Structures are given as C-alpha cells and as structure tokens.
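User: Hi! I have a protein structure encoded as tokens and I'd like to know what sequence might fold into it. I'm fairly new to this, so please keep things simple.
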C-alpha cells in the first residue's frame, strides 16, 4: 500500500478539522461557565479555545473546500455541544432531538465522502 504526501496532507486536513471542532465544543461549553463573562478564568479559557478553534479551522481549509470545512466544523461542534449540554447542564433530550442530531451527523459523513 503506497501512501503519497498528498494523501497524508488530505488526512491531516481532516485531523485539523476534528481538532478545530473539539476546540469549538470547548469554547461553546466554556461560554456557559463564564456566566455572561462575569467569571474571569472561564472567560480566558473560552477565548483560548476560540482562538485555537479558528487556527485549526484555518489550517484545515487550506486544502478542503470552505463550505465543507465550515459545515463539518460547525456540525461536529453542534453535536458535541448538544451531547455535553445533556450531561453537564442537564439539558433536555428526547427522540426528536436525537433524530435531528443524527441528521446532522449523516450530513457530516456525507460531506466527508463527497469531498474525497
């Protein structure tokens, strides 16, 4: 099995995108802990996560289509944030919400496959 530099580069773009989405989830959850930016340390953490999220997104979209990168970034962050919201903040969940999250996940997988 031969893997070219281009193949590795493309895979790195998806890894960067996953890292960016992880930091996106981190800053979204951190936002809740800032309590309207009234708590200093959670606000600092949120800003750091936000900067890292944008940095890794910028690395990912060097070679990925911007529409695909942005959609996967936000979609993955929506899923992760919704799941953490249930566990960390006792947000409600029901079959309708789960089905909608599954639709987002299906779209993300679809974008990955059609983007190569």
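Assistant: Happy to help. Inverse folding works backwards from shape to sequence: for each of the 116 positions I chose a residue that suits the local structure. Here it is:
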């Amino acid at each position: 099995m031969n893997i070219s530099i281009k193949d590795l580069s493309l895979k790195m773009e998806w890894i960067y995108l996953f890292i960016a989405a992880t930091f996106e989830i981190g800053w979204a959850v951190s936002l809740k802990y800032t309590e309207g930016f009234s708590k200093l340390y959670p606000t600092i953490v949120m800003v750091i996560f936000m900067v890292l999220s944008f940095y890794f997104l910028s690395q990912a979209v060097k070679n990925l289509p911007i529409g695909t990168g942005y959609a996967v970034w936000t979609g993955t962050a929506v899923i992760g944030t919704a799941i953490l919201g249930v566990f960390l903040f006792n947000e409600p969940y029901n079959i309708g919400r789960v089905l909608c999250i599954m639709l987002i996940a299906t779209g993300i997988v679809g974008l990955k496959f059609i983007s190569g």
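A useful reference point when you look it over: The chain has a mean pLDDT of 90. Feel free to ask if any position seems puzzling.
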